[in-house]
Amino acid sequence: MVQINPSILSADFARLADEAEAVRGADWLHVDVMDSHFVPNLTLGTPVVEALSKATSTPLDCHLMIDEPDRWAPQYVEAGAGSVTFHAEAAAAPVRLAREIKALGARASMALKPATPVEQYEDLLPELDMLLIMTVEPGFGGQAFLDIMLPKIRRARRLMDKHGLQMWLQVDGGVSASTIEQCAEAGADVFVAGSSVYGTDDPAAAVRALREQAEE
Ligand code: DX5
Ligand code: ZN
């Protein structure tokens, strides 16, 4: 099943509740948490996640681009996130962290930056509900899709199939009308889209159009 998760990084931060409403029909709202250490940008933290979770019925998919996720990720579940993604490059004990996120009641997901090989984490996949393959360097919205990541998406899906895993495979970065079909064809089923949704006049229509393209 295809899922479309608009990224509020490209939304108007002064009107987050309205911006959540503007993408009605989306599966999840993708919330990019950046700490200005793991990535060179700073966005928001648990107070905003908590407020947003109260303001919308769309579940929150929190993507933590932060150092020390082992220390901070559980607080995002408590703030109302339905899914929490930590970065493999930052986690000290990814298995323990994934189990803790699940024990608290959220879906556990791990993200890989473009240069991080998926093969290195084959044994961890059964611990995860979702794997996120970054298709840009994390930190900013509106960057160009790295099509050299397509073989990695394919390899990730192959590893999941090999182990009989039903887990989700998310792509994030530069996903748009012109790149989503290639990602779907490679095996992704959860699509994050920031500028290609919020950069349009009708974000809800953009979500519908992306979904149709991914389902083709
Ligand atoms: C980038 C973030 C993305 C970002 C995607 O580091 O993780 O979620 O919002 O934005 P677009 O879709 O514009 O590339
Ligand atoms: Zn993201």
From TrEMBL:
Binding-site residues, a divalent metal cation: 30, 32, 63, 172
PROSITE patterns in alphabetical order: RIBUL_P_3_EPIMER_1, RIBUL_P_3_EPIMER_2
Catalytic activity: D-ribulose 5-phosphate = D-xylulose 5-phosphate
Record: active site: 32 (proton acceptor), 172 (proton donor)
The protein's enzyme class: isomerase
Keywords assigned by UniProt, alphabetized: Carbohydrate metabolism, Isomerase, Metal-binding
Residues where substrate binds: 7, 63, 139-142, 172-174, 194-195
Name of the protein in its database record: Ribulose-phosphate 3-epimerase
Organism: Streptomyces daqingensis
Gene (UniProt): rpe
